[in-house]
């Protein structure tokens, strides 16, 4: 085999085998990187929710982890509750924009289900539910629709305006 024949053969091998393999490896690595980025984004959101729960714990007098709203809150307690609810709705919107998709893989759906559960849990609270129209004002329209739909489901058809 001459050098020229050898180079042609090597070129053929690269074209037929190595190039498609390299393209396949590239796409596999890209998918892994994308999955890692999605996992990192989910972890940041989870950490943010844990941080939010620490704020709730720091304001235990507001009884935000009970099912019933605080009876006869003071104006100062109402103000703190409103700020905490604003923080929560902002976190929910960020989770919606980052993690929610119309079509999700099983892993994405599992991650989203956690956020859906958190949202439903808070919507079952009368004080959060009653503040929802004000809280959603100015938020992303798709997020507003999603939260209103969840509220309807959690409240068995209660009407939400806005």
How would you characterize this protein structure?
This protein starts with a helix and ends in an 8-residue tail after the last helix. The protein is elongated, with a radius of gyration of 25 Å. The protein has 162 residues and is mainly α. It contains five helices and no strands. The mean pLDDT is 88.
For the structure shown, list the relevant keywords.
77% helix; 162 residues; 5 helices; mainly alpha
Largest sheet geometry:
none
Helix and strand content put the structural class at mainly alpha
| Number of alpha- plus pi-helical segments | 5
Q: Give the SSE order as H and E letters.
A: HHHHH
What does the average pLDDT come to? 88
Low-confidence stretches: none
- Secondary structure tally: strands: 0
Distance between the ends: 80 Å
Helix content: over 70%
Q: Categorize the overall geometry.
A: elongated
User: Nearest-angstrom radius of gyration?
Assistant: 25 Å
User: DSSP strand (E) fraction?
Assistant: under 5%
How is this structure best summarized?
The protein has 162 residues and is mainly α.
Lay out the secondary structure:
Blueprint: H1 3-58, H2 75-99, H3 106-123, H4 126-136, H5 141-154
């Amino acid at each position: 085999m001459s050098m020229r024949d050898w180079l042609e053969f090597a070129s053929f091998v690269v074209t037929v085998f190595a190039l498609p393999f390299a393209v396949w490896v590239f796409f596999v690595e890209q998918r892994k990187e994308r999955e890692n980025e999605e996992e990192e984004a989910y972890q940041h959101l989870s950490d943010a929710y844990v941080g939010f729960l620490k704020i709730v714990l720091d304001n235990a007098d507001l009884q935000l982890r009970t099912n019933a709203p605080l009876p006869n809150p003071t104006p100062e307690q109402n103000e703190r509750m409103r700020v905490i609810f604003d923080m929560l709705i902002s976190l929910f919107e960020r989770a919606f924009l980052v993690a929610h998709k119309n079509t999700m893989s099983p892993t994405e759906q599992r991650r989203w289900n956690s956020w859906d559960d958190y949202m439903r849990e808070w919507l079952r609270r009368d004080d959060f539910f009653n503040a929802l129209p004000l809280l959603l004002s100015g938020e992303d329209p798709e997020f507003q629709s999603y939260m209103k739909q969840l509220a309807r489901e959690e409240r068995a058809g209660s009407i939400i305006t806005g």
